[in-house]
Amino acid sequence: MTELAWLFLLLPVAAGAGWLAGRRGGERRGGARVSRLSNTYFRGLNYLLNEQQDKAIEVFLQIAAVDKDTVETQFALGHLFRRRGEVDRAIRLHQDLVARPGLSDEQKTRAVLALGEDYMRAGLFDRAETLFTDLVRMGVLAPQALRHLISIYQAERDWAKAIEHAHKLESAGGESMARLVAQFHCELAEMARLGGDDEGARRHVADAYAADSHSVRAGLVEARLELSAGNDAAAIRAFERVARHDIEFLPEILDPLLACYERRGESARARGFLLEMTEHYPGVSPVLALTRMIEREEGRQAALAFLSGQLRQRPSVRGEAAYIDLSLRDGDSDPAKALKTLKQITEQLVVRTPGYRCQRCGFGARAHHWQCPGCKSWGSIKPVHGTVSE
To answer: What is the DSSP string of 301-314?
Structure first.
């Protein structure tokens, strides 16, 4: 929700507060008070319509100060302060609400939750963790508090606690956390693998599969473990499973998978897999790999015929560059030089294009990230078809 929308939400609250304040003061005195509050209200509205939001906030603060019972106004202001980056003001406001006598249990709980969110925004994770843990222990607002705790443990890379609280959230809210838990186990598996603890890595991979049997990342970690152990047959199975679970990750596994096929002399299996992928994958990566195989086994003309036919169906900058390269393999005439120049330009266009993009926020990247640097979602960054990443 935008700041402007939040301010508009404050207007009826403030107006209602002014009316109630007037009723409490007696008819004559109340009328004057309502008049003053109405003038203040319309002054704030004028600031708002003229996009003078700082002045508008000050006016609504004055309205809230007239009647201390306007708790909803306080909550809305606190949220707005936090969104604007004025975390200190939000913290003070919510601390006052927590300490205020006479609030209902529900209002007190909301104030504690809001204060924890302020602490998170300020980077005071230890304080926020304490408040959210207390809310979970009391059994109030547990799903919201658990989500915040999971965010804190992700920021601190405490994957064990993140897993523990993801399971608690699943139990509390009925929402499946399987994919998230699988990502956390994969983080632990990667840490173990890089630390030389292959057995620990395998255990975490198994846990990731137990959480999400179609986990692409678990398949990639498993394949790398098998490669390091020299087990090409198992690596092939893991790589093929990754491609069939999520074909968008084909470019990530294609080169090491083809190397495994080659070491085992399984050319027919490799060709069958590539043909299967060309039927389902919209990018050009399997086409180019199959073109290279055809050139080795049947010659350059057969490879050119196959590639040109494929490019008519799925035009691609990388495919065009490969076709030019294959066409010029034995030529050195003037037309060949022109084609080489065209090839260089095409390659530059490919290099300048982001190879990966987040499916949620559109963040573009040259390298793959499991967690999007933009929106922080997991597993949402995937290769862009027709680019250098393929």
So the answer is: HHHHHHHHHHHHHS
pTM above 0.85, yes or no: no
Q: Cβ(43)–Cβ(59) under 8 Å?
A: yes
Asked which of 32-46, 127-141, 255-269, 334-348 is least confident by mean pLDDT, the reply is 32-46
pLDDT of residue 1 exceeding 50, the answer is no
Secondary structure class of 166 (helix, strand, coil): helix
> Taking 90 as the threshold, does the pLDDT of residue 49 lie above it?
no
The residues, ordered by sequence, that sit 6+ positions from 229 with a Cβ below 8 Å of its Cβ are 198
Binding residues for Fe cation: 358, 361, 372, 375
Q: What secondary structure does DSSP assign to 177-205, as a single string? A: -HHHHHHHHHHHHHHHHHTT-HHHHHHHH
Per the annotation, binding residues are: 358, 361, 372, 375
Domain 176-245 CATH class label = mainly alpha
For the chain, give percent helix, strand, coil, nearest 5. Answer: 75, 5, 20
Give residue 316's region: left, alpha or beta (phi > 0; psi -120 to 50). Answer: beta
Q: For domain 3-173, is the CATH number 1.25.40.10?
A: yes
